[in-house]
Design brief:
mainly beta, 3-stranded antiparallel beta sheet
Length: 82
């Protein structure tokens, strides 16, 4: 068993190709944890984390948007279809 400061044993690692030469890497650990990394791209910010239909849904936006990432989330969830 891993000590609190140690990374748990890795079970699997998969790369998913994305547009623009980016890659989404998903790593699964023995303790049930999951690590998600976007490789070869701008830094990303978490714009939302929701629990929908028994699924954890994580939305990332390019970090170059700065504070606009939050405004985009508000726009997307406002119900205003402008």
């Amino acid at each position: 068993m891993a000590v609190a400061d140690e990374r748990p044993d890795q079970v699997d690692k998969r790369d998913v190709p994305l547009s623009g030469g980016r890659t989404l890497r998903v790593t699964e650990y023995a303790n049930g944890g999951i690590r998600i990394a976007v490789k070869t791209g701008a830094p990303y910010v978490i714009t939302s984390l929701e629990y929908i239909d028994d699924e954890a849904v994580l939305k990332l936006s390019p970090g170059r948007e700065g504070s606009n990432a939050h405004r985009n989330w508000v726009r997307d969830h406002s119900g205003d279809d402008r």
